[in-house]
Each structure stands twice: as C-alpha cells, then as structure tokens.
Amino acid sequence: MSKDYEVLLYYKYVPIENAEEFAAQELAFCKSIGLKGRILIADEGINGTVSGPKSVTKKYMDHMHSMDKFSDLWFKINEADDFAHKKMFVRYRPEIVSLKLEEDLDPNQITGNHLSPAEFREAMKDEDTVIIDTRNDYEYELGHFEGAINPDIKAFRDLPQWLQENKDKFMDKKVLVYCTGGVRCEKLSGYMVREGMGKEIGQLYGGIENYGQDEATRGDMWEGKMYVFDERISVDINHVDPSIVGRDWFDGTPCERYVNCGNPECNRQILCSEENQEKYLGGCSHECRVHPRNRYIEAKGWSQAEVAERLAAIGESLPESAATN
Ligand SMILES: [Zn+2]
C-alpha cells in the first residue's frame, strides 16, 4: 500500500555563493511549505534529509530543481507513514559533513570510483577486496555489509586517523567504502586516493539507502537494518533475505530497539528490550544506573527504596553516600 509521506535524502558538492544568505532563504522557504528536516549548507555544497506529505516534498524537489546549480540534484526517496523529523533546521556550516581534514579537498576534483549498487555487490565478492564501513560504531552495530570492517569510531572526523593507523590492512588491496546516502564517502574516498591508501578505491554511489531500493540488488548481502538520523531510527534495507544483527546490550539476544542510557552524562546509544531497560534501571553500567540524575528512574518516579530493591534483583546496590541520604 502506498503511503502519504516521503523522506528525502540528498547532497551535492557544488560551490554556493553567499551560502549563509542562501541558508536563511532556504529555511524561510522550507517553513513556508511545511517541510521538516535538517539541511546543512556550506560554501562547498548542500546535504539534507527532509520529510513531509508527498505534495510538500514534491514542492520542495521542484523548487530545488528550478535552480541551475541543483537542476540535476538526486533525491533518494523513501515512503513513510508520517514526518520523520520534528522541526525544520537549515544551518550554515564550514563543511556539509564534518571531516576536518588538515588539508581539505574537493570531491569533484579527487574522489573514489562511484560504483552502482550492482557494481558494488560484484566488487564485494572479490577476495582481494577490503570493505570499510565509514559510519559510527552505533550505526554499524544495527546493520552492515557482510564482512565489512567496523572502524569503531564515535564520530566521522575520527576516521582519517583510524585509516592512518590501520592502513596495513588494506594498502595493497582494493578498498570499498560505503555510508548511508553516499555523502560521507565522497571526501573520505578522495582522502584515501590522495594518501595512496589501497590499489583502487570504490564508493557506493547513493549509499546503502539506494542499494536497498535498487532493483538489481534489493539490499542483498546487507545484514540487519540501517540506522537513520531521524525519528524512524532504523529502516529495512535487505528485501532478499533479511536478518537481525543487533544484539541486546544486557543479554546479547537479537534486538533492534535503540535507547539512550538514562545517565545524561553518558547518553550512550544502546540496543535493548523494554524488559531489560527496566530490569537494568535504564543505565548501561552500574555507575549509570546509580547516577543521581538517571532520567529513566526519574521518569518512572521510583522511590529510593524501590531503586534499592531493583538493584538488589540484579546483584547491585546503591553507593554508601546515596543509601544513607
Ligand atoms: Zn551509560
């Protein structure tokens, strides 16, 4: 059944004059048509994910396509039941994806080979190839390509250093990189080409998003789901033989439910069932469970005695200082 809303994912590296002013204009336009989402605009281009009723997303796409610079802008479209965002943000930034290379580069000048989903799948099957997931650790944990390396980074800007430290693993091999919609790989693969990392660098054009929708691949060889930075949290990619790779933080059983640790100073994203979240008082560790500002306990409204009882059930107790309060 067809749905009433759409989520759009898009980017383009193209010089934008007066980008800061352009960002302000775009914000006004997006608000005026009732679009929601997050758009980053820099002197080097645009990167966005927005959502709305189909009549609204159409207006937005027509608006972008009416500008010469964006007449060929490629929107990856996903149907949805509702808005995937709460608000509309358009921000002017130094980069459309924050990589912060010491020496910046233009992906229109230097970048890895753009591979279609079918080409990327073929390339993944090559024994001499190393596949590197360029996303963050929590994105990898929910789903990834079979056999892909997890650099286990917390933020994208940490990746160049990881690559430098691990280049022995792929220096004399063919390398494939991929990300959600393709934008992160543009500069990153350019950096790898510049640094001579790998015999050949290929990037998945249109990202995992496009790979899942592509008629030829339909998400084949993708394991688990794909993490997305909006209200949906995750989306299906593999329509051939779907599987679950996410594991419950507490008991290791298959799980795809994301929550944030209750300790506001930790805020770690973990996968866990509703049951285990309650059992472990919403905290990823003992320290987080007994943190005085644990939001999960606050929301539940548990008394000190109830907290003590629940901790006892998992073999833990309140620290001395808190217990004597
Ligand atoms: Zn925590």
From TrEMBL:
* Top-level taxon of the source organism: Bacteria
Listed SMART domains: RHOD
InterPro entries named among the record's database cross-references? Rhodanese-like_dom (IPR001763), Rhodanese-like_dom_sf (IPR036873), Rhodanese_C (IPR022111), TrhO (IPR020936), TRHO_N (IPR040503)
Q: Which GO terms describe its biological process?
A: tRNA modification
Give one GO term, molecular function aspect. Answer: oxidoreductase activity, acting on paired donors, with incorporation or reduction of molecular oxygen
Q: What class of enzyme is it?
A: oxidoreductase
Question: What catalytic activity is recorded?
Answer: uridine(34) in tRNA + AH2 + O2 = 5-hydroxyuridine(34) in tRNA + A + H2O
> Keywords in UniProt for this one?
Oxidoreductase, tRNA processing
Q: State its Enzyme Commission number(s).
A: 1.14.-.-
Entry's family note: Belongs to the TrhO family.
Q: What does the record give as the function of this protein? A: Catalyzes oxygen-dependent 5-hydroxyuridine (ho5U) modification at position 34 in tRNAs.
Q: What is this protein called?
A: tRNA uridine(34) hydroxylase
